[in-house]
From TrEMBL:
GO terms for molecular function: UDP-glucose 4-epimerase activity. The lineage of its organism: Bacteria, Bacillati, Bacillota, Clostridia, Eubacteriales. Pfam families: Epimerase. Coiled coil: none annotated. This is UDP-glucose 4-epimerase. Homodimer. The keyword ATP-binding does not apply. It catalyses: UDP-alpha-D-glucose = UDP-alpha-D-galactose. NCBIfam families: galE. InterPro entries: Epimerase_deHydtase (IPR001509), NAD(P)-bd_dom_sf (IPR036291), UDP_G4E (IPR005886).
Length: 328
């Protein structure tokens, strides 16, 4: 039986497919390739389909023997979600509703769901625990939380078991250098900083310098994409063992300010990297740092990359060998 990976041609999806293949899992990737890259899928069967069309999902579930689903496919940009929230409800909520409906009809009862620290909004405490209040301050986080709630009721009613994985800031690239981060347009901090190092941009604009943090810039918890991917494999195995549905934070438990990230990138690349202060981006909390004790204790998760220098090195290896992402 196969594991269906939606959004498996995307950044975290493609790295998880790589981990699943290493773990000798049978993998089927479903991606509409709106944001994903066919070349990022290193193996398994590939199906181009759109989750917003439920009949396409029904067909995939009918024609393939699917044991479990790992659901990544979604829009992911906080800033864009504030400007165009309905786009996010459509792709993140409606698509997930379709997927769950088709799973329920086909009797597929295990799902690992790609969620986010943005579900917490302004944190009650640092580090953030899974039991803390969820009160998103942007539509991206709200759509992810909506799906989390849908999963809870679907478990109660139909027995679909889930692992919700709330990612903090995914970054870095596969150690092989074969796959990495390639968003277009790029909106994330580390790849944009590295584009400045490559001379593809003149400067990094730091959004907000008056936050309530050590240097006034936002603080985030950066976690390597392969460590995130490993957690998906463990969550799947845990569901197979009959685990109850559960929610896990995935982060390193350490925060870096935006200015500190620029410093790390300067050290790794040896480039000057011009940074300028710019206005705040809407929807950004001051500080997001995870407590990942639950994933460590229950899933046996062991993040390997706990040094931001090493993480940025893997990203730099990818970006410097693929200056145009998957286009060469
Ligand atoms: N950021 C920034 N300049 C940029 C892109 C991002 O200052 O060009 C900041 C952003 O405001 C946030 C942090 O970097 O404080 C991380 O943002 P990113 O979009 O990478 O991840 P998010 O936290 O939104 O998932």
């Amino acid at each position: 039986m196969a594991v269906l990976v939606t959004g498996g041609a995307g950044y975290i999806g493609s790295h998880t497919v790589a981990e699943l293949l290493d773990a000798k899992e049978e993998v089927i990737v479903l991606d509409n390739l709106e944001k994903g890259h066919r070349e990022a899928v290193l193996g398994g069967k590939f199906i181009q389909a759109d989750l917003r069309n439920i009949d396409e999902i029904r067909k995939v579930l009918k024609e393939n023997d699917i044991e479990a689903v790992i659901h990544f496919a979604a829009y992911i940009e906080v800033g864009e979600s504030v400007i165009n929230p309905l786009k996010y409800y459509n792709n993140n909520v409606i698509a997930s509703l379709n997927l769950l409906t088709a799973m329920q009809e086909a009797g597929v009862n295990k799902i690992v769901f790609s969620s986010t620290a943005a579900t917490y909004g302004i944190p009650e405490q640092i580090p953030i625990k899974e039991s803390d209040r969820t009160a998103p301050i942007n539509p991206y986080g709200e759509t992810k939380l909506t799906v989390e709630k849908m999963l809870k009721w679907a478990d109660d009613a139909y027995g679909i078991k889930y692992a919700v994985l709330r990612y903090f800031n995914a970054c870095g690239a596969h150690i092989s250098g074969k796959i990495g981060e390639a968003h277009s347009p790029e909106s994330h901090l580390i790849p944009i900083i590295l584009q400045v190092a490559q001379g593809k941009r003149d400067e990094i604009k730091i959004f907000g310098s008056d936050y309530n943090t050590k240097d006034g810039t936002c603080v985030r918890d950066y976690i390597h994409v392969s460590d995130l991917s490993q957690a998906h494999v463990l969550a799947l195995k845990n569901l197979r063992k009959g685990a109850e549905s559960n929610t896990f934070n995935l982060g390193n438990g350490t925060g870096f300010s935006n200015k500190e990230v620029v410093e790390v990138a300067r050290a790794v690349t040896g480039k000057t990297i011009k940074a300028t202060d710019a206005p705040r981006r809407p929807g950004d909390p001051d500080i997001l740092i995870a407590s990942a004790e639950k994933a460590i204790n229950i899933l046996g998760w062991k993040p390997k990359y706990n040094d931001l220098n090493k993480i940025v090195e893997t990203a730099w290896k990818w970006h410097s060998t693929h200056p145009n992402g998957y286009n060469g």
